[in-house]
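Archive entry: two folds, one per protein. Generate the first.
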Amino acid sequence: MKTIGLIGGMSWESTAVYYRRINEEIRRMRGGLASAEIAMRSLDFTTVVALQKADRWEDAGNLLGHAAASLNRAGAACVLICTNTMHLVSKPVADMAGVPLICIIEETAKALKADGRKRPLLLATRYTMEHGFYAERMAKLGIEIVTPDAEDRQIIHDVIFDELCQGKILDTSREKYLGIIEKMKSRGIDSVILGCTEISMLVDPDKLGIAGYDSTIIHADAAVRFALANDLEIAA
């Protein structure tokens, strides 16, 4: 089993989901008392958020890049950035990591393409929805990203930072999200991406009335496949 490196803490609420999912899948696939070999660097989210708000993305990339390099030194064979937003700086992080970086955008795109989805609605932080990096990378893979209007983008963003990242799960916010999804169906979307690693804490991707894709689970499962690649090759 290869060691999985996690850059977490952004927020730790979703990092806990990664840890649980990865270990559940390792146990499911290996059985018994099996658990994952994981090295984690959990960052202080207040520092990361301050860099985001100040538009200091180069500094953010260096911060995460050093975290990735430390995971390499700790024995990690791959690195995951446990958040969608910070994939805005995935290139410098990958350059500094020294081991493969498993990209949440690419893995989510693979899942969409496998199901023939071409026009998903993206629910995420404002940075992810508005900075263009996510839509551009998806477009290169043949997928056209659709985002809500500005007012709804702000609602989605505020719920993430003011509630989900602080462990608050409110029924009123769930209804807001479901209402936004329902409204966007008239724009010809064929699926929904839960493009923030905390959103699945609020809404179930299987209960949206349209195909839902939880980027957190997709990303975590990709890490498991990487870690167990030798096992899977032998089984095949």
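Generate the second and append.
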Amino acid sequence: MLTDTHAHLASRQFATDLPEIIDRARAAGVKRIVCIGTTLEDSKRVLEIADMYPEVEATVGIHPCDADTVKGDAFVEELKELAQHPKVVGIGEIGLDHYHQPPEGFTLDSWKEQQAFVLERQLELAAELKLNVVLHNRESFEDLVAQVLPWSDRLRGVFHCFTGGSEQALPLIERGHLVSFTGIVTFKNGQVIQECARAVPSGGFMLETDCPYLAPMPFRGKRNEPAYVANTAEFVASLRGMRLEDLVSETGATAAAFFRKPA
């Protein structure tokens, strides 16, 4: 089951041709797409899209770059209500981002504190609902790992758009978490990620597009879309010396086990 485990189908870049994008994904053999929420409003749109297409499932969450869109704890109850939707299979995209400058009204320290607070409340919610989490990291890896690992006995996380080496990935996988590779792994300057994609064990990673961003070769620089996860799958299969159908089967099974409703 070829699966795009991270797609931002609610993006404005898909506003005019989403049906055609889904058709191209089907033609490319993509059987499952996990559509990712980033704010409360975006998460509502994600659920609408999931209702429209049988192969689309959803996560709901507050992205760290949007942590300023919520105040206090009230957002948790709204997220909890959204998570009751039958096609919600995870909480995300959540995490930490120390790359972008703080928004107006925040110092660097207070912005980091707000992000960490919003992340912790969503980790608590995910554990309560027995859902796994989709994790964003940008120049915040050590802080993110330190905040997530204490939850390892209550939930699993996928470190999406993983760009680190195997020395970072393998300890996470040993604790039950996953990494996920985007089209970056196909780039000519992606040697570190390529080495990681060779080294991680079967069952320890998934594939994604992160569309509309990060299109793989030969589409680099263009708008990404779920169909292109097939190109990433082909490249990773070659890296690992596997038949494409075996890689698709393995990563599809990993995604099916990770993105699921609790029993």
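Annotation attached to the second fold: The longest strand covers residues 88-97. The mean pLDDT is 97.
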